[in-house]
Structures are given as structure tokens and as C-alpha cells.
Amino acid sequence: MKKNSYFKKFMVIALALAMVFTFAACGGSSDSGSSDSGAAEGAATIKIGCSGPLTGGASIYGTAVKQGAEIAVAEINEANPDLQIEFKMEDDEADGEKAVNAYNKLKDWGIQIMMGTVTTGSCIATSAITFEDRVFELTPSASSADVTAGKDNVFQVCFTDPNQGIKAADYIAENMAGKKVGVIYNNSDPYSTGIFNAFKSEFESKGGEIVAAETYPDDTNADYSAQLTSCKSAGAEVVLLPIYYTPASVIMKQAKDMNYAPTFFGVDGMDGILDMEGFDTALAEGVMLMTPFNPWSTDENVASFVEKYQAAYNEVPNQFAADGYDAIYALYDAFKAAGLTPDQANEEICDAMIGQFTGGFSYDGLTGTGMTWNEKGEVNKTPVICVIEGGIYVDK
Fold first, then answer.
1. pLDDT tens digits, residue range 98-126?
2. Which pLDDT score is estimated for 4?
3. In angstroms, rounded to a whole number, what is the distance separating the alpha carbons of residues 82 and 218?
């Protein structure tokens, strides 16, 4: 992606804004849980569908993916009048059964490629069906290895859970050597346990010791004092939190209340904590975070995306917005590289896209440069380690 001229950037921002204000009035579905962005009338169009949580407790993830995707669709359609994208997203509330219903709505709409779903549980539920239907699927953010297991048509933009655990272990072992490490994780969540198990194996193989490994059963848990007390008593100076930002925010508040100040180390599920309503961002000061995207980066492509996103949605994009943006571009670029046309059958499109993603296709995006994929559907890219200082991410 090359940096646009001022005029082109203005036109893209205007188009994105127009999309935002017209979705409610002219969406392709009467269901308030769906959104639709269309291509120019009469153009050859690829129908790309997605489902994710647009309402409910995980809506920050789905909304960000949708908005990042909208920016990409606007750019592509403005620059490519001969081959455009029609994008439609259905709300699945991060629920597997609702995700299947959302996918069926997208099938009725005429979906040709699936971008998503956004969350792991929903993606596991729908990917079994896309595999049977031979619809190519690229999820921006469903990170469990179970998402792609046994399905040749499903690929990921995000890191897998085991990969995150391994990268976190490597970083802590190499850069925080000698520090006592504790972990607090959700033992009922495949995302959290997947990261923890990989972290434990890798960290111990490098001679590291986990002095406390504490669990909790659900992200709605309101009291983490026992887990924090265990970590504090064991002398944990670093506490890995392979969890989402909602429980992490409670843990940080309760740690402060008990005068416990370890270095908290988060993974991609913690991205978004600074935008959480009612959260005191001072509690996150000094938190380390492994993420593929830093919105405060000086990279010109990142800066350009952030400028457009803020103009369209009046907020700083998080990693999930960048994942959605990259997923749309990667799909579009691979579609063109394969020489595909929208009038081909989904089965033909699926097979050709698999060939691209497993055949050396490479994409330079916001969440990584030189991204490639293996036959398991896993992406190869390097995470960014940041520390939160003054309410922003600072690269380490």
C-alpha cells in the first residue's frame, strides 16, 4: 500500500464517513444486527461477509473489525472501479449458535468469501459449515488453533494462541531474566488456556520458573484477590495475564487496592483496555503488551490508517480494527493474484484462494510486513512488544 496524496486521502475519508452515516438507512438487511457496504452500481463485485459481536460484552472487538474493514472497502472501491467489494456483517454476539444463524443469513445474501468470524467460539461453529460449503474463510481475530484444525479453507490474520504463548515466554525469558513470574488465567476459556499451556512449556524449557499459576472460571468473575494474594506471596515480579481486557481491568484495580505492583504482561486480548468505559487508564501505566499493531507508531501506513479511522469514527483504532483492515486487503489482493472473477462458483474461488495462501502469497499490512501463511492456516509475522506510558503504547 502506497501513501495516498492529500486529495485521495480526503476522498477516502469522505467516503468512509458517508458509509457510516448511511448504513442505518440503507443497509441490505432489515435486521438491526447487520450492516452492509455496497459497491458502485454495475461494477463487478466480490461479496465478502463477516459475523462478529456488534452488541453484547464483546462488541468492542466486532465493532472494531467492522470499522477497520469499512475503511479498507472504501479505499479499494475508490481505487478499483473494475473490481469492487460488497461487504456485509451480521451480529453474532460472540455466540456460536447465533454465529451459525448469521452465516445462514450471509448465504442467503450470496456470500462468496467469509472474513471471520471475529471470536474463536463463533469461528469454530461456523468454520465447520464453511468447510462443507467450500467457502474460503480468513478470520481477522479468532486465534485458537481449533479454528483451522482439519479445515483447509480457513486461515488467520491474527497470531494463534500457542504462538502468542511462545512469543511471550521467549520475550520474558530473554529480557526479564531472573524475574519471578506468576500467571492468572481463565481455565474455562480455550483462548486463555491455549496461551498459558504454550507459555508454560516454552518458558520452562528456557529455564524459567512459574512461581504461581492461578485460575478463575469465568470472565464475569468479580473477585481476584485470592489469585493476586497467591502471586504476591510467591514474590511474582511479573504477572502474565493471557486474558481479555475486562477481567484484566478488575485485576489491575484490585492489585492497586492491595498495594501489589508487579509488571503485568498482557497479550492481544488486552488490546482495547485503554478505551474501556469507566476504566482509569493510570492503572495500566507500565503494563507490557504483546500486540501486532501500535496505533501510535510513526510508520506512515499506520499513521494514514489512524488518521482515516479517527476522521470516520472519532476514536483511536485498536488491533482488531487493523486486523479487519488487513483481512479485507489480503483477501482482495489474493483474489486478484489468483486471476479470479466474481462470476466463478464459490468452490472454484475457495480452491484458488487456498492455492494462493499456501503457495507463497505475501501481504504487507498494518499488523505485519511480509505476512505469509502455512498449510495449517497460520500466519507468519512478528509481534510488537509495547509498554503503556501516559495512556499510549510505546514500542519496546
1. 999 999 999 999 999 999 899 989 999 99
2. 40
3. 49
- Round to whole Å and give the CA distance between 158 and 142: 7
Contact 190, 182 (CB under 8 A): no
Q: Can you tell me the distance from the alpha carbon of 154 to that of 333, in angstroms, rounded to the nearest whole number? A: 17
Q: What is the DSSP string of 360-377?
A: T--EEETTEEEEEE-TTS
- The alpha carbon of 381 is separated from its chain's Cα centroid by a whole number of angstroms, namely 14
Q: What percentage of the chain reaches a pLDDT higher than 90? A: 76
Can you say whether the dihedral through the CA atoms of 375, 377, 381, 387 is positive or negative? negative
Where do the domains of the chain lie? 6-159+298-382, 161-291
CATH code at 6-159+298-382: 3.40.50.2300
Rounded Cα gap, residues 327 and 325, in angstroms: 6
- Residue whose C-alpha is closest to residue 171's, from 385, 14, 339, 321: 385
Of 219, 127, 119, the C-alpha closest to 161 is 119
